[in-house]
């Protein structure tokens, strides 16, 4: 029996099994149903086995059990025709680096704990600043995603804005502090509001600027701002892909000393391209940027990046010390720039992806996905369906008629399994929401998806008409 706590080479068969199951899973992605297998999910839900048994189970049996139980019950998110939310696939080199870093099992909180991976993370951060054309003096840290990157960035913002008023928020808290005005847009992402709540700035205590038909902040509606202000902009609207006019907004608030934060979860990657960089021109004049690597950089979950121009504010809000911690180091301590102390070497996955792609490779993925989004939109228009947004990036909103029919068609597409897309409400209309975000998606995948959508929508069209027993035309 393979003892599950054994770490000697002879007992590593379970790792070979992991490789075998992984390769089998990955090679089935292009042909399996994108949606989880309904029966497999059902089997998991029905498992009447709440008690953990007293004696252990052979490690190889445990892994086989996981593969049998859960692999078919996963969504094929990393496959070529998953277009839900904004997710992204995984480059093989990033997955391999992730595996290797797991074998290292490093705690990369402090430089002196794990100098090698800490150097790789620092290098990956520099490369990111280069690819995204952000100021080289910025500090940064690898987080679990944009949600947490918001918390890290806005903690630095809160600190810097109140320090100017002579208030040390990290030592003395918010109670009794000078008030901070937080400006958002009506289209700010829900994770931004969560971060504001966590930081005591309040989810609701915000000034929300109206947006236009594409979800862009209306810069001319910006009120006159005085006192400490944190202004939160967004590039890459989760429905339309549109970007706030950040350069214009910064021009309007620069003289007031406002801190400008950018939610660039996926949209900031447009800066890596030639064709789409105009959408995010001038964004480098902001003060902080929250981005994801697990979306458009195509590294495995979960990795995002918090980038802050005022590295001192970021470090002061995040760093800790204790007599038992070797925090003294000439080199950057990774945990000084994120929430976690103990943390995995997330940046190694990013290092691998960037090293393998180069600046041109990053641009190629982003541009290819944008072209594919436009191709899909064109296919929908050609079939007579309305595309609700200007397809400026990788997001497409398609309407198939009334809300009920659109939702029914989306459900039928999901059940069919050829591709997966979700639904959404956009400015009072119901739409199918398509996000093209994977290195693995080919033009043939797009064409096959168009054909499937058109066929399913045509089939759904029929019954709706026949069922309209009240005589009302239902188109
Ligand atoms: C995905 C996304 C987020 C949240 O990112 P997580 O990585 O899920 O935390 C925030 N803002 C925007 C615009 C996004 O697309």
Task: Provide a descriptive summary of the structure in words.
The chain has 475 residues and is α/β, with parallel strands linked by helices. It contains 13 helices and eleven strands. The chain has helices at residues 13-28, 38-46, 59-70, 92-104, 115-131, 146-163, 169-172, 190-198, 246-253, 311-318, 346-382, 403-416, 443-467, and strands at residues 139-143, 181-185, 207-209, 229-234, 259-263, 288-292, 304-308, 386-387, 395-399, 422-426, 429-435. Strands 1-7-6-5-4-2-3 form a seven-stranded mixed β-sheet. A four-stranded antiparallel β-sheet has the order 8-9-11-10. The protein is globular, with a radius of gyration of 24 Å. The N and C termini lie far apart (64 Å). The relative contact order is 0.14. Pyridoxal-5'-phosphate (PLP) binds at residues 86, 145-147, 189, 191, 234, 236, 238, 263, 265-266, 292, 304.
Task: List key phrases describing it.
475 residues; 40% helix; 4-stranded antiparallel beta sheet; single chain; disordered C terminus; binds pyridoxal-5'-phosphate
